[in-house]
Amino acid sequence: MNIIFAGTPEFARVALARLHAAGFLVSLVLTQPDRPAGRGMKLQASPVKQFALEHQIPVAQPHSLRLDGKYPDEAAAAREAIAAAQADAMVVAAYGLILPQWVLDAPRLGCFNIHASLLPRWRGAAPIHRAIEAGDAQTGVTIMQMDAGLDTGDMLLLERLPITDTDTTGLLHDRLATLGGRLMVEALELAACGGLKPVPQPTVGVTYAHKIEKAEAAIDWRMSAQAIAQRVRAFNPFPGAATALAGEAVKVWMAQADTLCAADADAADADTVPGQVLSVADDGIRVQTGDGMLVLTELQRAGGKRLPAADFLRGFALVPGQVLDAAPAQLAAQKAAP
């Protein structure tokens, strides 16, 4: 089968590599334009573009595919490249651009999307983050026939994955990326012989996974310990949950809700406030929240490395009674956000 692939980040690169290894002819790759990144802010190619160049696959990088938009010449050039590819199908995975109807109609079999959730739950930009943040017990991958809506197309294949209480977005991302590549290979093989059976999405259970904003990183210690722990895992590796002590920003990379031991129960009396440090030990820093206790087990000072609590405490003086707060920059951004 001759396909066009549209995608940008590592999640998409994994799928492209799986399709390429399975023997599909990838005649064209669409990916986002190179972006500045790193300390030097030099232009860097996306993971998908890097894979395409390594395997001599033609690449197009339009800023937009709208023929009547801000970049009509780029869109027109992309239309010519898509038409010339004469693809049977287009595979889309975290591409980052809206596909106009002319793109959806271009391939013979249409456009297939790899979406990292169990649709219709968590339509939108950040399904992995939001599933962990919400405390979902499971997620998965849906292969979808794309239409003009936001992740509203018919479901073609679906497979579930459990979410453990230690999963971060980074860990879950990798498992879902591998699953997405495998399912897309299966979907294209079924499409080649007319074996796909589209199923409309349910009209109940629709939720939207809005884009993650840096302002969300600031820990609100008034929340419950369980809710904060879920946000810490959801925001690992981006944007990283943040707090502060005496104005110094600290990232919290791993944490877990815990019951109070006898000593901590004595410390957590009526005078404690959310964010107050209850105890400090090598196995974690115990902090009072709006409901329950949170144990911080992996932290990072500004400009430093991620460290287990024991190593972090060797270079950061922290004693019971001190009160953590939101990192000032993030808190200001959070307050300024609409």
User: Residue ranges: pLDDT <50 for 5 or more in a row?
Assistant: 328-338
Q: Termini distance? A: 47 Å
Helicity level, as a percent range?
A: 25-40%
> Per DSSP, what share of the residues sits in E-state strands of 2 or more residues?
25-35%
**What Rg do the Cα atoms give?**
23 Å
How many E strands?
Answer: 17
How confident is the prediction overall: mean pLDDT? Answer: 93
What would you say this structure looks like, in words?
The chain has 338 residues and is of the alpha/beta class. It is 30% helix and 26% strand. The strands form four sheets. A seven-stranded mixed β-sheet has the order 5-2-1-6-7-9-10, with helices on both faces. The model is unreliable at 328-338 (pLDDT under 50).
Features:
alpha/beta, disordered C terminus, 6-stranded antiparallel β-sheet, 7-stranded mixed β-sheet, 338 residues
Describe what is shown at a glance:
The protein is built from ten helices and 17 strands. The chain has 338 residues and is α/β, with parallel strands linked by helices.
How would the blueprint of this fold be written?
Blueprint: E1 2-7, H1 10-21, E2 25-30, E3 35-37, E4 42-44, H2 47-54, E5 59-60, H3 72-85, E6 89-93, H4 101-105, E7 111-115, E8 123-124, H5 127-133, E9 138-145, E10 155-162, H6 169-192, E11 208-209, H7 225-234, E12 241-245, E13 248-258, H8 262-267, E14 277-281, E15 284-288, E16 293-301, E17 307-308, H9 309-314, H10 328-336
Parallel strand pairs: 1-2, 1-6, 2-5, 6-7, 8-11
Antiparallel strand pairs: 3-4, 7-9, 9-10, 12-13, 13-16, 14-15, 15-16, 16-17
